[in-house]
Every structure is written in structure tokens, then in C-alpha cells.
Amino acid sequence: MPKHKTKSYRHKNRFSAKSYQRAVKTLRLKPGADARLKKIFASIGVPSHRPFKPDSFQRKAIKAIQQTDCLVTAPTGAGKTWIALQAIQRILNKQKRAWYACPLKALSNAKLTEFSNIFGADQVGILTGDRKENPDAPLIVGTTEILRNQLYDAMHRGQTVDTHLVVLDEAHFLGDPDRGVVWEEIMIYLPARVALLMLSATIGNAHQIANWLESNRQQKCIVVVETKRPVPLFPLFLHPTGTLLPLLSRRKDPGGNKLDKKIVSYLSSKKKDALRASGKLPPLGQIIRVMRKYNLLPAIFFLKSRSDCDQALEQCGDPNPSIKRGSPHLSQRIQMLTAHSALLAKHRQRRYLEHLAIGAHHSGQLPAWKLVIEKLMSEGLLDAVFATSTVAAGVNFPARTVIFLNSDRFNGAEFLPLTATEFHQMTGRAGRRGMDNIGFALAVPGKFLDIRWIAKLINSPPTDVLSQIKINFSMVLNLLLSHSPDQIQELLRMSFASHLVKQSASRKQKVKNQSTADDLWQDFLRHLAVLQAAGYVSYEGQLTADGQWASQLRVDQPLLIGEGFRKSAIPTDDPAILAALIASFVYERSDDSRLSRTHPSVTLVAAFHKLKKELTPFAKFMAHHGFAAKILAFKPVMTVFAWASGKPWEQVCHWGGIEEGDLAMLIVRTADNLRHIRGLRHVFPQAAAAADRAIKLILRDPITEDMRR
């Protein structure tokens, strides 16, 4: 699929400004439906209860994992977790151990609850960094980073990891630009004696991944593919008049993506109406009214930004307490879910939940509040949720209808068209298994929706997963704990990236942005040279004493933090200042805007300036070797210091100018870094003790609320 520049792509479907302004002033949707939809809408309902009977792909997967490795690729909601449950039960019956690895801490927490109810609380433990409970249980649920770190430790000790089955949930994260390297490392380092069960959304090159694993692990990897959705999907189009139309033509079409003739007519019209003005949302309250009439709720509206999600609530009308859209049970359930936290109980968006049965869900919100939204939606108590596309991955968030207002997605740098895999993950939320006979995907025309692109994606095959492996200093230090440089070169030859390049070379094809083993090796040598020059690795390729403890800093900036300790630039007598300074290594934004508070702590300012001064020579050293050193910002330092000093949550958010979700993530990641410092008690006992106290200061309500439930 071609990648478009932000400007040219988003201009492609632009309606005239006058058309949008006219639409906003005069538009009143009149609910209607094309006569051809009568039969489709008649099928809406709850399927009759039937005794559970596993599908053929589930039976095939269970048989496969009993013999060897297995990769299951199937649509969202198809029943992949059931396969894992059967495989885990078989392992537990043999008095052996299993590991269930998740991409998200929230998903790990949910799986802990689910598996504890199934296998018994004494049989399940959790390891996510935030939580360490029952770590000796036969079944461990945790994040992939924790599992990767356990593999590092096992290789260092010359032992094998203490498990007999590893389940990698959301295995398509192998292709995630930021975290895919962790999945790939696990697949490379995991001993062949440990059975590997991978559960994935539909991906285009499952057999290619299996072939790579077979070449490394010297055993068969059986691929089980299911392409049929558990609930059929029907695509719709909302005409600006308020009439629902079938999106695709029912005529035979080889690609199955030909637009309905009425939509073609609409697109070709020179004076077509629009549903929203430039920069504004369509009349979402009226759209919900149309959907309510035809029994298409609950729905997930996929919007382009956090601010759009929040503004959507306001646009749906006044949450008048005398008018309640939700069920009588909704208010009671909200009360129950928020009773433990004063912050949640008085959340600014609670009135929309309670009186309009709608909510907003995005990364700018508190994890605990997002969990409330997720629970209410999964229990069928909400009519609509306005969310960014991130909700499509890894969260149990089903609906009857998903609604697209944009055909692109912001990747952190620019807007790019949705890929087939992204689109299928989003539409995977449409149609709740056991609750819906049919699910719907509704396209709402507007400035940033390419209707033809959406039509093309509906029947497009999933995209391929490509390797995202990259060398970093933490990886090099940890591999040198147990391998010589020559042995590491052999490991890099086992990468998925190298496998893809070899295959493409044999087929005389090109694979974009994939590194060969030689490329990875040269990058490894670049990192190694810096570590040797800095005294973390000897010129014989062995870790020095500093390299030994620095390898335990499995964080994004191990060398900068390491240098801070080597230079005694990180104070260890004040846990609040320690937490604040570590936050500067975690903060990812480039902005360091002035804060509203005018009298910061003199001690904190002095500590921050000392840290920057002591690290400046090392930053120049890194730059000389071609590595950009992180610029330390004062904004996160001041904000986390205020929180660690006991200031109220609302005040810290307002004063720091950071959204709740971003601040929560900053604090959680700061705590992760502090845990690694706490692990250095044998080298820096005072720092470790301060880190332990700092963690307790910053992990308090509301940060810990989602961890407790």
C-alpha cells in the first residue's frame, strides 16, 4: 500500500469550506434506511444459546501444541484464548509450569482475574513490573518485557527458564515499530524444549514466521489459520441526509469492494452535502439517534485525536439528570466501580456516562477511568464510546457497530492511510460473539474519509509482519552477560530480519527496511565500541564491574543513568528528588515549557543542574560516536517532584500542563526505572533504598487503582 505524505493525503477528499459551513448551520439528520437493508436489519439480535463446541481451527491448534510449536492466526473474537486455556490446563495437569505473555499491563491484569477464576488463585501469579504476586505459581501471567528479562537472567546463570509452555498473546506485535524487538528476542532466546504457542490477529505472512522459527528451533511450527469472522460483518454508509445505505454493491465483483451505485452517485455529485465543517465533528448526537432507531447500538466511534473524543461528549447534548439514556443498572454500576476512588467518583466526564450512556476512551485519560469505561462497555451498559484507534488492540472492547470518520491514522509523526491489518483490528470489535448475530462497520463521509479506500480494505488480505529488531545498549550489555561477541554474531544471524532478507534474495525480491545479519552486526559493533570506550566492556569483549551492574538497568537510558551514578550526580538522600530526576530520563516529549509555578524547590533545581552538568561531557562523547544523547527536560522533573511531595492529583495535572493519562504513564515508567535501580542494592545500597521509598511515594491513588482490580 502506498504511503502518502500527510498534506497531500489529507487534502484528497476535502469538501469546500462553504459546503461544510452550510451543512453545520442547516443539517438535521432524518433517520432513514435503504429498503435493501430491511432483510439485513431483520437479522439483528442475540443468537440462540448452544452448547459450546470448539471450531475446527481450535481443535487443530490443540492437537498441534501437544506435539510442537503452533502459530494461530484468527480474527478478533474468534476464540484464540480458549486454545491457550486448554494448552495451559494440560501443562498444569502434568504438574508443570506455563507462562502467558501479554503486550499490555492492563491485559495482564485482566488475564490474572480470568485465569484465577478458572484455575484457582493459588495456581496463578503475575509479573508486570507494577505487580509481583505469587511468582512461584505454576502459571505466570506477565508482560513480554518481563519474560524477555527472565530469559536474559537464565542465559546469564547458564540455566534454562523454568517453564514448559510459553503463550505469546497478540503475537503480531512482532511487527510493532517500538516493541516488536522484544517479541523477536523472546522467539530467538527461548529454548526449543519450551513449547511455544503464538496467538495472533490475522497476518499475511504467518507461514514465513513459522519457517523462520523452524530454522532456529529445529522443530516444526504448525500454522493454524482461521479467516472466518465469528460474527459476520456488514458495511454501511451514512448519507448526509441521515439515510443508511449499503456500502458495497451486491453485484459480483472479483475484489468484492465495488461501491454501491448510490454512493458512487453521491461521490460524483458536484454539490454533495457534508456532515461536518472543516475542523469540526459531525452531529454525533444525531448519528447516535439514527443508529438507535435501527438497533445498531452499542457503537465505537473511531476518532482521530484525544480532543475529538472529549469534544464528542459535549456535542452529544446536555447530560440532564432528568433524562437518562442508560439502563437503571448503569448508575448503580458506575457507583460501584468508582466508590473506591474520590477522583473517579467525581470525574468530569461521569455525567455523560450516567445520563447519556456515552463515554470517551483514549490514552490521555487515567488508566483507572479507562478501565471503568471498558467494564461498562463490555457489560453492554453504554450506547457509544468515542475512542482513538489504539483501543482496537489488546482490549476486550466489543460493540455491535464500529464507525469510521477517518481512513487514516496518526503514527506519531504523520497521518498515513489505515493498513488492512489496522482496519481488521478495528472492525474486529464489531459484533459480539454470543451477543450479536451480525456486526456493522459504518462509514461517515467527511473531510478525512476516503470512502474508496475503506471499501478496498474491507476484503483486503492482512498485511505482512516485518522484523523490527534493532540494537540497543541494554541488549548488548545483557547479551554480553552470557555470550562472547562471536556468539552474539551467530544470534543476530537468527533474527527474523536476516531470515526475510535471505528469503527475498533467493526469490530476487526486495524487502523494505530490513536489516541483514551483517547490518545488525555492524550496529552491534558500534554500540560495543561505545561501551568499551566508556569502560563498561573490556577490549576483550567482557563486561567490566560497571558493565555487570549496568546490565541490570533494563531501561531506555541505561548509560545515562549509569553515568549519573558513576559521577555521583544522582542524589540518594531524598527519594522525591530521586524520582523527579529519573522522570527526566523517561519523558519522551521535546517540549519543556515554563510551568505555572514560579518558586520551584531550590534543592531540586540545584540537583537538576548538577545532573545536566555532569552528564554533558558524556552526551558529547555519545554524539562523537554517532549516538544522540537524550536532552533532559525540567518539566517532568518539577511535575513528578510535586506528585512525590504529596500534592493533590488535580493540582499536579493542572500545574504541570500534562494530561492525566500522560502523567500516569510518566509516573508508571518512572517507577519501572526506579525498580531497576532498587535492584542494584549490592552496588548502590543507598540509592536502592531511596528508590524503594520513591516508588512508594509516586505509586498511590489514582495511579494504582487499575492495578488493584
Tell me the layout of helices and strands:
Elements: H1 6-11, H2 17-26, E1 32-33, H3 38-42, H4 56-65, E2 69-73, H5 80-93, E3 98-102, H6 105-119, E4 124-127, E5 132-133, E6 139-143, H7 144-157, E7 165-168, H8 180-189, E8 195-200, H9 206-217, E9 221-225, E10 233-238, E11 243-246, H10 261-268, H11 284-293, E12 299-302, H12 306-315, H13 328-338, H14 342-345, H15 350-356, E13 358-361, H16 367-378, E14 384-387, E15 401-404, E16 408-410, E17 415-417, H17 420-427, E18 439-443, H18 451-458, H19 473-480, H20 485-492, H21 496-506, H22 517-533, H23 545-550, H24 558-566, H25 575-586, H26 602-624, H27 634-644, H28 649-656, H29 660-678, H30 685-698, H31 705-708
Parallel strand pairs: 1-11, 2-8, 2-9, 3-6, 3-7, 4-6, 7-8, 10-18, 12-14, 12-15, 13-14, 15-18
Antiparallel strand pairs: 4-5, 10-11, 16-17
Helix pairs in contact: 4-5, 7-8, 25-27, 25-29, 25-30, 27-28, 29-30
Overview of this protein structure:
The strands form 3 sheets. This protein has an 8-stranded mixed beta sheet with strand order 1-11-10-18-15-12-14-13, with helices on both faces. Strands 5-4-6-3-7-8-2-9 form an 8-stranded mixed beta sheet, sandwiched between helices. Helices cover 46% and strands 11% of the residues. The protein has 4 domains: 6-47 and 231-304 and 388-458, Rossmann fold; 56-225, Rossmann fold; 469-551, no CATH class; 557-709, Sec63 N-terminal domain-like fold (Orthogonal Bundle). Helix 4 (56-65) runs parallel beside helix 5, helix 25 crosses helix 30 and helix 29 packs antiparallel against helix 30 (685-698).
